[in-house]
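Lab notebook, bench 4. Still working through the backlog of constructs that have no structural model yet. Next entry is a single chain of 202 residues. Request: give me the structure tokens for it.
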Amino acid sequence: MKPRRLADAVEEAHEWLDLKYTQVIRSFSEGARWGLPALPEIISATEAFFAEPDAYPIDARATCYSFAFFSSKRLGKGQFYLMTIADRDGHPLDGANTYRLVVPPDVPVTQYWSATVYSRETHTLIREMPLAGRSSQSPDLVRNPDGSTDIYFGPQPPAGNEGNWIPTDRAGGFEVLFRFYGPTPALYDKSWRLPDLERTTA
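Model written out:
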């Protein structure tokens, strides 16, 4: 009886964390599916080393550390992160489908940017994949004539775009973390905006 109760408790906790996780990712830009994967209270508490006497965001901390494996003490200074778990139409990202992300030119960074795929179920890198992401430093990355970059996500590389492809597991959902290293003001004032992933047959 006790093992069954423990298993039920674990399942209930997992469902609660998953629900809270979907609430954490709030639009960074109006109407966007991309969001900063952390609530304001956990950001404030982390920057204060959890030393604020009247603030200890237990639920926010539990949710954050169910998918994040480190704490950024100065978020937005040397790096910034945007997460998405849905495509442009609001559908959960499915590893059996193919999606395209058009990264606009002049990404607001002084160093580089990257896009990394994680398992939606475990929030960890997807096992047995040849690679986990692409970045502006990837040697085989191909850019468009206007300076934008098409990144493809899916179980098979699109013909002619193998260097811009990030593999997914067709048996499960996934999420994408877009990292900005050395972010500049255009990111924060929203004059540069990261589009949502669009499902495609390419």
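Notes after review: The helical segments are 2-24, 40-47, 58-64, 185-188. The domain at 2-200 is CATH 2.60.120.600 (Jelly Rolls). Flag for follow-up if needed.
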